[in-house]
Amino acid sequence: MKIDNSLPLEYSTEENSLKILGFWIFLGAEIMLFATLFATYFTLENRTGSGPTGAEIFQITPVLFETILLLTSSFTVGLGIHAMRIGKQKAMITFFSITLLLGLAFLGVEIFEFVTYVHEGAGIQTSAFTAALLTTLGTHGVHVTLGFFWGLFIILQIKKRGLTPQTTNKAFIFSLYWHFLDVVWIFIFSFIYLKGMM
Amino acid sequence: MDFFDRFAVPHPSIAIYASMAAIGLTIIAVIAGLTYFKKWGYLWREWLTTVDHKRIGIMYLLSALLMLFRGGVDAIMMRAQLAVPDNTLLDAQHYNEIFTTHGIVMILFMAMPFIMFFMNFVVPLQIGARDVAFPRLNALSFWLFFMGAMLFNISFVVGGSPDAGWTSYFPLAGNEFSESVGTNYYMIAIQIAGIGTLMTGINFITTILKMRAPGMTLMKMPMFTWSALIANVIIVFAFPVLAVLLAMGTLDRQFGTHFFTMDNGGMDMLWANIFWVWGHPEVYILILPAFGIYSEIISTFARRNLYGYKSMVGSMVIISLLSFLVWAHHFFTMGQGALTNSIFSITTMAIAVPTGVKIFNWLLTLRKGKIVFTTPMLYSMHFIPLFTLGGVTGVMLAMSAADYQYHNTMFLVAHFHNVIIPGVVYAMLAGLHYYWPKMFGFMLNEKIGKRTVWLLSIGFILAFMPMYASGLDGQARRMYTYSEAAGFGLMNMISFVGAAIMAIGFVLIVYNIYFSTRYESRDISNDPWDARTLEWSTHTPVPEYNFAILPDVESNEALWDAKKNGHVLFKGDYEKIHMPNNSGIPFIMSCIFFVWGFSFIFSLWIPVIVTTLGIFGCMALRSFEQDHGRYISVKEIEETETNLRGA
Ligand code: HEM
Ligand SMILES: [Cu+2]
């Protein structure tokens, strides 16, 4: 394996830079996936049938919590990558762990939110609107869940193997994914919740 | 027994029982054969676990040929049923199932893997690379596609085939009107294969952007590689749309949601819209690589540089953009109003312009060329006029006002077969003849090959031209019979004869493979067609590492330069070569996916949960695994090269 020392560790081999480009392309596909979900949501937004409307079920408090948790986690994962670049393994692991804990807290609030919706008579089977809403939020939530385990595996590997071209590459790609989920959430926050509450 | 009832076929017939027996016997024969000849180890080591793009390509090819025959049998049954009025060969339900599976099998499980075969086999060789960017992911893509296809194919013996058309429009495809698990098969099997396709897209974009030989700038890439690049970009943008669509269809059918239902706010037209947002780009995913193959073949056998390289690339880029902006032309009659229809009419007609540019480029390449009529070239020469006809009827269909007359008639059926058969299928067959010697070290027989082309074209014209007429006369598509008074009898009989002639053509291809395997000379050069691009500069058979030394490129016809202008392709000495290791994970993971899909289709939730964990387990395993590949030493390279040169 040829290592090019003029580049950051995560870019240092050819395989690594292929992986990073490949992941960017994957994120392009993810954008299309969420775009399709958003398009569906906007189409079905007002088709509430006999169920409740968005304005009736959306509550600002849990949503604000979720937003703050996820945005902060995006910041901490950035700090983690910074620590990784300057070779501080311990700091990096700490920041990654904080990120994952924040992600877990986000999921907790989201589950609480879903339970509330169901109690208020807005289950996935209620109407076209609830189906689109819960599928969109759910898809994002599943992504965060997968991200949690992925991040966990990476932390374990870094603990075991240290900062190598392979582990840093994985961690860097994970951070791209995590930021992406944050961006999707900002869209959800603005165009689903805020728009729905207005 | 209740548990097992769900696996029974809702509309059994002799044909289905016969197929069950045939499938069972084939499986037993394969297992017995492998055991008897002690080939299990070979199969596992050389094929099931391979990450070599050439072998993966060949597996795509075999699957595609297999599916061509499955889809072909469907086709001939449909034509036989329609050959005479008031026929009772098939009943309405069987006819519905057959046109549905025919469409899906041909587009997703025949044409797609055929394209994947070409991309896998040709692209790395054409750009002078040693493999694709992510060889394991490539294996996973193949196996997911394969398991999806197999899952789809067992539907007609276990639980019932889908029967709502390859478009599966709701509410017809909803639970109310499609009670059997058939449509669940549609949702899940295509989902699994689609994930594989999406990963291929990512893999090949990365490969083409990052792994080209030194000196090969984007504008020096051979035309097939360009077409593959653009098709993969379309895949990456279109297939996630399909994934979401199928997931929503699954939710509606199995979890009681209301995306596409007729009550509680559901919107049936949402399915049609999203389907075609994927569906129209999909037809361009098929046709662009086909155009790429024709470009290679036409310039090789006209012995001329491809005319208008830049305009070829430009027109493909424009087509890829426009292909996302025309979807509503598939349902002009379904009530979106005059303004919307007019806009989509115009975008659709606009697509014909870059397509026309390409046709003229091929014609101008031929002009003043020294044309050699080999089988691949003959296919290409039949393609140009026949495909143009299909394009012209496409423009007719694109006029939204006139489409009220054509829509959902045999005229439409004639149009898309007119673009897909001479466009896509001929390209596949031409490419098959063209690349066969590179794959297997002998040529396919030219005489049989050329006769096949003529048979196929005569059969094609007889089978599909009458449909334009009967369609204009009002014969609806997807109807299992018509009355004598309708007067469609003669046309349909001609179509049947044409279809039978085409069937003979396809059988001849198989015969040609058999005949050539036995009798054709093994003594061919690395470059039997006197071609122009890099894939012909390496040995036949291609060594595992493709190129002992990476080629040096200065134009889009590097090999031609080397042959005619004294350009030196391979400079320098051998160095050790890094290769990826084989892996069983892609195959095993895809098998788990198969069980997952099957359980999901029948709503068996416990196995679904177990297999889901299994899939994530495989991914975790992969994450923790450390595999740095292996090296081929200079000594080994020298040995291989001497052997290949000697042979
Ligand atoms: C000149 C370019 C083309 C134009 C203007 C065009 C136009 C159209 C239009 C307007 C329809 C819908 C008609 C209706 O439903 O009433 C249609 C259907 C179709 N076209 Fe084309 N087309 C073109 C090229 C192609 C190509 C290159 C392919 C495939 C490789 C293709 C495959 C299809 C298929 C599969 C359908 C019908 C699908 C179905 O309803 O089941 N077309 N085309
Ligand atoms: Cu279309």
In summary, what is this structure?
The complex is a heterodimer of chains A (198) and B (647). By secondary structure, chain A is mainly α.
Number of self-contained structural domains of chain A: 1
Strand count, sense and barrel status of the largest sheet of chain A are: none
**Protein chains sharing the most extensive interface:** A-B, 41 and 44 residues
Helical segment count of chain B: 20
**Quaternary arrangement of the chains shown?**
heterodimer
Strand order of the largest sheet of chain B: 1-2
| Name of the level-1 CATH class of chain A | Mainly Alpha
Helical percentage of chain B: 55-70%
Write the H/E string of chain A, N to C. Answer: HHHHHH
What does the overall shape of chain B look like? globular
- Average pLDDT number of chain B: 93
Low-confidence stretches of chain B: none
Layout: helices, strands, pairs:
The complex is a heterodimer of chains A (198) and B (647).
Chain A: H1 14-44, H2 54-57, H3 60-85, H4 89-119, H5 128-161, H6 165-197
Helix pairs in contact in A: 1-5, 1-6, 3-4, 3-6, 4-5, 5-6
Chain B: H1 2-5, H2 14-36, H3 40-48, H4 53-82, H5 92-126, H6 135-154, H7 182-210, H8 223-254, H9 268-301, H10 309-322, H11 338-366, H12 375-398, H13 400-406, H14 410-440, H15 446-472, H16 489-519, H17 558-564, E1 577-579, H18 585-601, H19 605-624, E2 630-632, H20 634-646
Antiparallel strand pairs in B: 1-2
Protoporphyrin IX containing FE binds next to helix 9, helix 11, helix 12, helix 13 and helix 14 of chain B.
